[in-house]
Amino acid sequence: MTPQEALVALNMLPKIGPIRVRRLVEAFGDPSKILGADKDRLMRVDGIGEETAKILQSWQDHADPITELHEAAERGISVITQDEPNYPASLREAYDPPLVLYVWGEITPRDRHAISIVGSRRATHYGMQATKKLSYQIAQAGFTIISGLARGIDTAAHEAAVAANGRTIAVLGSGLAKLFPQENLALAEKIASGFGAVVSEFPLNKSPDKQTFPMRNRIVAAWARAVLVVECPAWSGSLITANLASEYGKPIFAVPGPIDKPTSAGCNQLIRDGATLVADASHLLEDLGELPFARKASQVEPAAEIPQLPEEEAAVYAAVTSDEAAVDLIIERCGLPAHTVTANLMKLEMRRLVRAYPGFRYARR
What does CATH list as the number for 109-288? Predict the structure, then answer.
């Protein structure tokens, strides 16, 4: 058994986790020597009790790494371990790094320059618009956008990064064969097709549960150079992500919100506690520094370029009139897929050719 196969098997076992496996690897050297090892030898490792030792001895009842790796290859998914060069260095340095990463798409060296954007699943119009603006600008500045592919703020962050022709990493709280939420499958396919990667530490067919999302959040916190919280209530998983990032020594940024809105209470509290207030991407980029391959975040293409709009952008622009129209009507008018229309509406908004209104309605400026 290869070390990769052994780590995949260990990752599939219940009640083990990356911290215990790291201790086992330190004790045994080769991951393949752990599986089926003598119970007494296993129990001499710190944190390995009798129950865990029994699971390790009967590992074949829980895991089939050969079949797992074969299914991943058939789905176009690569499986990388901490020893491989494309495993993110920032994750490798974390206290409890994932044993393996399932990667649909591609992780590149520039993804070390990443900013995590998180927020509420039940985002308001204010939160969505702020996320789109900031994610677009940050992606244009050359940073990879990391988020969790959840509804609301996460979705807006990924979509805006794609619209900016930037890079984005979606970190799942489920296996890649159980992508959640299913409504974001088209977005995930778009990301994996050349705009970044969809990533999970969980076996392919692992369904999401209450434990997988906090585990996902630690990756979002550890991978990026900084975390930006756009909108969240006082009790939110986004605050957990921010706290984890703070423990990792990462700077925390937050978008302020109306003082009378519970949906912004979490961000406002973060700012009170010392997070840097962000109203424009420049506030964040000034602290992190510009990248050598960056485009200016504030660069907006002039309206004079309207005749030279790319084909899809032009089709969407033609479907928008001076009267406010719901996005569903715009989709119907131009006959393009929903994710294509929303991405191009974002581009047009950043070009200052269309304006967004509450209720996902758009009109020409």
Answer: 3.40.50.450
Q: Is the pTM of this model over 0.85?
A: no
Q: What DSSP letter does each residue of 59-88 carry, written as one string?
A: GGGT--HHHHHHHHHHTT-EEEETTSTTS-
Distance CA 34, CA 329 (A): 59
- pLDDT tens for 299-327 read 433 333 444 788 888 889 888 987 888 88
**Cα dist from 328 to 69, 162, 177, 305, 322, whole Å:** 40, 20, 29, 26, 16
Closest by CA position to 348, among listed 327, 333, 328, 362: 362
- Rounded Cα–Cα distance for residues 314 and 137 (Å): 22
* Cβ(122)–Cβ(152) below 8 Å: yes
| Long-range contacts of residues 234-237, Cβ cutoff 8 Å, at least 24 apart | 234/262, 234/265, 234/266, 234/269, 235/266, 236/120, 236/266, 237/118, 237/213
The pLDDT tens digits of the residues spanning 25-37 come to 989 988 999 997 8
The pLDDT tens digits of the residues spanning 65-124 come to: 999 999 999 999 999 999 899 999 999 988 889 999 999 999 999 999 999 999 999 999
Domain 303-364 has CATH 1.10.10.10: yes
Phi, psi angles (nearest 5°) of residue 113: -90, 80
